[in-house]
Each structure stands twice: as C-alpha cells, then as structure tokens.
Amino acid sequence: MNEGRTHEPLEHKIQDGRCRMLYDPSLVGNFDPRWFDPEYLRQVGALRGQARGRGNTYFFEVSAAGYALRHYRRGGLAAAVMQDRYLDLGEARSRPFREFRVIQRLQRLGLPVAPVVAARYAPSGLLSRGDLITQRLPGVSTLAETLERSPDAIDWLHVGETLARFHCVGLHHADLNAHNLLLNGQGQWFLIDFDRASFREPGLWRDANLVRLRRSILKVCDSLSRDFEESCWMSMLEGYRGGAPCSESA
After folding, report:
1. Residues with active-site annotation
2. What pTM value is reported for the model?
3. DSSP letters along 180-237, please?
4. Which of 8, 47, 169, 246 is surrounded by the fewest CB atoms within 10 Å?
C-alpha cells in the first residue's frame, strides 16, 4: 500500500544550551524555536485555542498553517509529584524524540497521522521536560465527539480497516482510545498521540490494543447514558480482520 507515500520527512537538529530540538524543514522552513512557548504564541497573536483535558495542548497558526503544541505531562499518581518532569535517559530515549521518529516512520509508510513538525527535549539535572508540535488536522472530530453528536456517522468497518493498517506495520499504540481516533469531513480516520508507542512483532498486544479501545468506547457511551450496540463492535472487527494484508514493512 504505497499510495500515501507522497512526503519524505526530514530531520534537522538545533541546540540551545542543553536544550535540543528536532524539526522537519520540508514542512516548516520558517521554524522558530519560540513556537514551543505558549506565552510567546499568545503575545504575537498566533494562539488559537487550547484542548480540553489536562490543559497541555495548544493550537496555533503561523503563515495560515495550523499546528498543535503538546507539552508532555504525567498522568495518574505520578502527576502530583513529577508533573511534567521525567527521568532523563538521554535525547535518543526521550519521549519527544522517540515520538517524533515514530510518527515520521508512519508518515513514510503512508499511514493516516498528523504530520510531526518539531520536538523539544529539555534536560535539567537528572530530569527532563519535553514538547511536540504536529500539523493540525482541519475539520476533524474525535471518535468520542462523534459518538456524542452523530453516532450514525461512524463507519465502524472503516475504523477497523484503519486500525489494521497500523497493526500490520507493527505499531503498538500505548493508549488507543476514543479520543485518539479522528474523523475528517471526507470520512477518513486518523490516529494520533504516539507517546510511548513502539514497533513490535505480531503478538497478543494487538488484541490488548483493541480491548483498550473497546473499554474507552464503553466509558464514553456510559457517560452519555447511551448503550453501545454490539453490532457496531462486530462491524469494527470485520473491518479489522478484512483490512489491508500485512505486507508493508515497518
């Protein structure tokens, strides 16, 4: 499946003190390291909004192009103590650099993702912080939002086919849920948020990914006091099992 391989991502590195950044000059020849600073974006009038949730994703626009800036923050119990700090394992193993390279690999394989623009790794002592910038996908809604607003618009067969494409190249998504699948106005599904994602040999992790997604969908439906039709899940599995043959190389 090669029809999506129209963009060959590039990787350039710049350094500011101990802080190191990667960016793709084929996407942003005008990249400015200050794009990682929400306050700077606010001052120059580029900030366009902020995502719901933990408040760590900002949307901004530069030269009529839209971007999403995500600051890495911890979840769960660790968030109360460490907040946005992680044990420093070096730049190659840092979360932003690893996610940058995972997404670029998926781009090369022609998979439906938000292209990655830049990543920042900022070490300090034994700890580090990080950020990631991706292109903003226009006119998209999450699977969770679609379940709330127009559940009949969901083509579950296509959802399954899309997930099969990622699994066929060995992509293990660490947090596959109803908020990380996006639908655009043309009916195309995208997968986002590849923090802690990895490439693996075929295994039971594929089933675990799907179970995690199902739990997330049920949680969304429960919050809406709405039943989730088992036929929808069966249709998703049909699309998944009949998806693209696993012939693409990861």
Report:
1. 175
2. 0.91
3. SEEE-TTS-EEE---TT-EE--SSTHHHHHHHHHHHHHHHHHHHTT-PPPHHHHHHHH
4. 8
